[in-house]
Specification:
Rossmann fold, nine-stranded mixed beta sheet, 9 helices, Class_I_gatase-like, Trehalose_catabolism_ThuA_prok
Length: 254
């Protein structure tokens, strides 16, 4: 079955910041999408990868578009408040129904992620272009497949603990920085029928998404987060008549 992926990009820094334009002349979203197409094809995974931008969010993340999306990656930073609440809630509903979500870097503050976590998602940060080492702490996890231990990111914005998120269902990566901080940089969650994988490396001022190791993590993440083979619908509320489970209705209610 074809894996249908939407790569959401805020696409704001790329328009106003010359440094970002030099690193990502076609946008971070384009680099991410092209890497996913290439690596998923190499993995033998049939996939359709489309790009969704903040400028066309009403269309690219409409009810109909999200209904046809298996996994949504999300990069945002300077325009979280420009995402309409209705669309953020729509994404949350789709995650509960089974769609996978892969928030990247500053998307820890995105509306969908904070709603799904139920916490502030606050953290420490310092942007001095320090080295980041991404350590695998769960080598048997599918997202860690083929990933070096550690991944060395030569320059990156520091994210550090405390990171105000719920305890992850699975912790895959922990990062350390030249300044001594550590950070839960690869954390997996389940919400309803959907899977979420937050991955922090990827500040706009550094060519992190050009790194092959980072691209491998993203390709692994969208494969892990794809919906499981079960109905993509919420659990319903119903008036349960006595002995309802003895007949055909019991099958339809699951």
């Amino acid at each position: 079955m074809t894996l249908r992926i939407a790569v959401f990009g805020e696409n704001r820094h790329e328009k106003v910041d010359q440094r970002v334009q030099e690193i990502y002349p076609e946008g971070m979203h384009t680099v991410i999408a092209e890497a996913l197409r290439r690596l998923l094809a190499a993995d033998g995974v049939e996939a359709e990868v489309r790009i969704a931008l903040l400028d066309d969010i009403e269309e690219s993340l409409s009810e109909e578009a999200l209904a046809e999306t298996d996994v949504l990656t999300w990069w945002g930073h300077m325009a979280h408040d420009d995402v309409p609440d209705e669309i953020a809630d729509r994404v949350v509903r789709r995650v509960h129904e089974g769609m996978g979500l892969v928030p990247l870097h500053s998307a820890h503050y995105s509306k969908p992620f904070t709603r799904l976590m139920g916490t502030t998602c606050n953290l420490l940060w310092r942007n001095e272009g320090e080295e980041e080492r991404v350590w695998t702490v769960n080598g048997s996890h599918p997202i860690a497949r083929g990933v070096p231990h550690p991944i060395i990111v030569p320059e990156q914005e520091m994210y550090g603990e405390m990171f105000d998120i719920p305890a992850p269902d699975e912790l895959v990566f922990v990062s350390s920085f030249a300044g001594g901080e550590v950070f839960r940089s690869g954390a997996a969650f389940r919400r309803g029928k959907g899977k979420i994988f937050y991955f922090s490396p990827g500040d706009q001022e550094y060519p992190v998404y050009h790194q092959a190791e980072i691209q491998r993590v993203l390709a692994n993440a969208v494969q892990w987060a794809r919906p499981e083979d079960r109905p993509a619908q919420p659990v319903r509320i119903a008036n349960a008549q006595r002995d309802w489970f003895r007949g055909e209705e019991s099958v339809r209610a699951i």
